[in-house]
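Hey, can you fold this?
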Amino acid sequence: MRSVRRLLLAVLLVAATVTGCASGPDTGGVTVRAAQFPWSAAKLTNTILSEVATTHPELGVTDWKTIQVSPATAWAGAQRGDVDVLSEIAMPNQRKLADKAKDRIDVLRPTYSGAEQGWFVPTYALAPGQPLAGLRNVNQLNRYAPALDGKLIDSDPSFLTTEQNAKRLSGYKLDLEQVTSSEAAQIAELQRAYERRAPILVFLYHPSYVFQQFDMTQLQEPAPYEDGCFDTGDGACAMPDYSAWTAISKDLRTTAPRFASMLERFQLPLPDVETMLRRVDVDNEDVETVARDYVATHPQLVQRWVGAA
């Protein structure tokens, strides 16, 4: 009988511990599970949100856990109910993924808008007498392929833009090899080309510290972006400017309503994001330090996010 009582006590202690971590009554808050996409701005945004939650306990968040995943994996987790927050959702790039999870996830509002993405070359390579002199438009690229070593230097294979770039190369009938790697390896390749003053064609997007460190020129597009271009069309179109959105699980509105309300007001100026990314990616400062500094030095902005919570 004594052993049975000890076993029962152990079970009750475990149950109490799990309950305390999962929801509010024992801890005063909830654990938020945030998807973190594999690019610097996503980590920065999540760290800012974690810092706000930590410094404002009235928002009802006890712990912030990030899950490093690709967009497709993140949205699959959201459909299963394994994700509470998604930040840095690139729209319209991730629209189809978001639509599949709409029964569990609410897409709230843009964190920032008007972020350009496309194919860029170093401005120095366009000067008279340089290898890319006269290049202005994407549809001229076959003529300049030898100078570019026949390559488009793309980013992470898990990015949805990597699929779009493959369709663009095919749609525009360009004789260029799509070279994919990690984002860090891609930027390192750009750095090496820049140091040699060599021509290079790179897929880039805002926000990125790259535009503060390098003088880059975006190539013009022969056709504007239209809905369906990369789904049912041939891909021969521009890449759309995108907005970075925040989304939450429907359950979070019940378990942490004040934090959910804060996320509905959360916005960051795009120039501020790029300035912070330079500190993280170029100056090698800890992202936690950069996020903490930003929250501390922008009290009025943070108060607008927190509101009356």
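Oh, and this one too while you're at it.
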Amino acid sequence: MRGTLSYLKWPLIVTALGLVLAAFIGWRFNGQTGAISFFLIAGVLAVLEISLSFDNAIVNANKLQTMRPEWQRRFLTWGILIAVFGMRVIFPLLVVVIAARIGPISAVNLAATQPAEYARLIHEAHLPIAAFGGSFLMLVALNYFFDQSKEVDWIGAFERWLRAFGSVRGMEIGFVLVTVLVFVWLLPPEDEATFMYSAIWGVVTYLGVDALGAVLDRWGASHTGAAQAGLGGFLYLEVLDASFSFDGVIGAFALTQNLFLIAIGLGIGAMYVRSMTVMLVEKGTLAEFRYLENGAFWSILVLSVVMFAQTMWKIPEAATGLLGAGFIGTAFVSSLLWNRRNGD
């Protein structure tokens, strides 16, 4: 089994290259002052991404444990390209293309020459993005807590109560739809249709990816050596990562309006999250810390509610990150205490 430092090899290389590139871009914009500013902002964005996505790493590790080693490697290689270029570059551009009804080349020019207008268009698309991501992540969390085969309860009585709902088929979908209706009732009339339409698409996407994953993995398992085995899990993890990245991409514009700097900073953070995921799998950390997975899913559930709430109120990304870190940190301490009580 590799040492901990070996997992940091590529993240550290990407960090060095990314920070140098950020400083170079800043220098081209505003000399030495710009270089220092862009260097620092890229570092802050990387920390922001790691803090917002640590729970994502734990959930990813849980899924990766069921995947073959080659698909684990593909998640770290192909997956990081999708995460960085797909969600941190292509996705914001597509938002602008759709919102402004312009071509992709024009969107790139807009990001490079009119960053303020680019940022405004991204922020205007926040409501449907938050509705989609909120419903998707809420289903991810509830599917865990309603799972009848779940054996470990952290918040004992409450988690057992939630698991009892799992005996009712489709209960998690009904819970999400009721939550969506509550927020539709609270939202201004002009936002109701957009919110509901986007939230429903989040539910449909979750169900579609889950069904496709089950079909592909079942097909792959029945064909020895078939490449499709593990593809379903890979697709699920990529959509999950996309849902987590929405908040980080939107929040990054509070620090800078430069698309390329955002891609560098969030890309550095995403690389650490991916490496952290593989380390959790190979070192068996989830098994060692009994309640860590529970804390991650509580963090996801809270994040989904926060994303819904962001459609009405301004909630700082720092607060979101602290909430997630709080659940995971508390679960980590609870795991240590359990290990001590049970002689582990």
